[in-house]
Specification:
This protein has about 90 residues and is an alpha+beta fold. It contains three helices and four strands, in the order βαββαβα. The longest helix has 11 residues, at about 70-80. The structure holds iron/sulfur cluster (2 copies).
Length: about 90
């Protein structure tokens, strides 16, 4: 399943990553792969910002604003019937 393109707040710090593979294991949408003993984001648009990867990463290499982010702002705009926009204050 794909979500809105290029709006997920997911970020990976490759320098911190120790290649343990936990993020790949816990992610329900196969967003990560382990390539060359480092995690890589291979499908960012499938991220639903659940936060499982960031909470379980032992190296604090992942950040994601779980439950908020631009996707929330854009969807809220759609539901209100107004122009979809990231105006929920989530990017400040
Ligand atoms: S859980 Fe963290 S340290 Fe482990 S592979 Fe993923 S990003 Fe790297
Ligand atoms: S926030 Fe959830 S869906 Fe997104 S990459 Fe992390 S575990 Fe996967």
């Amino acid at each position: 399943m794909k979500y809105l393109r290029n709006v997920a707040t997911l970020k990976l710090d490759a320098e911190r990553c120790i290649g343990c593979g936990v993020c790949s294991t816990v992610c329900p949408h196969a967003v990560f792969d382990i390539i060359g003993k480092k995690a890589r984001i291979v499908d960012k648009d499938s991220c639903m910002e659940c936060g499982a990867c960031a909470r379980n990463c032992p190296a604090c290499a992942i950040t994601v604003k779980s439950g908020v982010g631009c996707a929330a702002g854009i969807i809220a705009g759609m539901l209100r019937g107004t122009e979809p926009a990231c105006d929920e204050g989530c990017c400040g």
